[in-house]
Amino acid sequence: MLLKRKGDLETAAIARDPNAQYVPQIQVMPQTPPPQVNTQQTMAPAPAPAPRAEAFTEAPRPVSDMQRMPMPERTEQNAVGSRLVATREVLPASSEEEEFTPTNWLNNIFMEAMRLNVSDIHIIPERDYTSVRFRVDGVISEVAKWDIDYHEMVLSRIKIISGLQVVEKNIPQDGHIELLFEQAKTAVGWGQKGASSLNFRVSTMPTINGEAAVLRVLSKENCVLTLDQIGLSDKSLFTLRKILQRGHGVVLMTGYSGSGKTTTLYAALNEIDANQKVIITLEDPVEYRVPMIQQSQVNPMAGYHFDTGLKAILRQDPDVIMIGEIRDDETANIAMRLAMVGRLVLTTLHTNSIVGALTRVSDMGITRSVIAAAFMGVVAERLVRKICPACRQESTPPYELMKMFNIEWPEGDKVYAGRGCDACGQTGFVDRVGIFEIMEVDRDFENVILQDSPTESLEQYVKKHVTETLREDGFDKVRKGITTLEEVIRATI
Ligand SMILES: [Zn+2]
Q: Is cis: bond before 51, omega within 30 of 0?
């Protein structure tokens, strides 16, 4: 709210300037380090479908970084590329204004990325050209490219607004960009979900062709989902709520990176009444901002690691601790200790299954008896693409794929697929949804863990006692026309 008010003031100030021809709606500001000089930039309103011609106009900015360059080439070959109309069509028509600067090119990329709801923007130098690729719903494709001669200018701009060392080109760097929106309601894409700001984690890396930059969308403010919005079946939702209700112990979300486990973690956190509990998080980085919660971000450069942070948290009298990810033995150890003294610990682990997670924790030096006592529940998750509702139609099962992976599909059960339309960029998919399996660590499962059973028998036990397996949950979503059989097979093999 504070940020919004700040934006209001700035907008008002610019609007009073008789030379300003437009009211900027978005500002780009570096998060770290704090700006020494005024590097804040303003951006045009998020493009509502029409009138688009006014959208990407430029806000006043220092002349120093107005390096002129020709318009980049558009890539026409792929579906997403053909939707990148913004680069040319929305810029002002007069020849002078059509000139290209790193700032307006980046603003165009941000706008287009927002419209398409991308999760990552890749700006990658090839030998002769720079390739811009968007990851949308887990799938990456090239959306634009331009001559390599301009690469360094754009990279410098990215580094300035994300607080990185511009002259340092030979080592990887990490930074942040925060975009603030004034008119969230008029924005499409991310804005449609009510975001008023967006955070990118920026990562640069030297390659043989120059520096590559990848911008990952981190927080969609006000977009923390609740447990009933992430695709949990009734049975899984009931079980997860029951586990959280117990109010102590470790609740672990597990999955590959990009499996949606962080979203689920926040949704679980959202379930807890922050008025009645002290909730503290330790994250790397903070991906969503949640009111009423003490969120802390580790900073290894300054010597602030997960283990030091957790030791400090112990003295902050928390009821609920959220640890972004368990990565090392020490963190695992402290997490277990916190759980054993009656705190609720929500965290994630990068493994592919429930048993895999237990084995991994065991490999981190945690004894079986501590695991049995500390764990309350484990959630395994995958993301599958959702069929575009505008072009969904009945389809035929992918027999070849099913044969390859020995998958049976009941005769007569319907499957669906998207035909491809303008709404989904001809892909047949829009957005993604989670498929879940949840294991509650009850007395019986505790005993199984304590018995030091081999992995296979643990797996068999889990398969029998989870709410439903990932594949069962997925197949259910296939029958309901939410996703395709191919998606579920791909996510669960
Ligand atoms: Zn469609």
A: yes
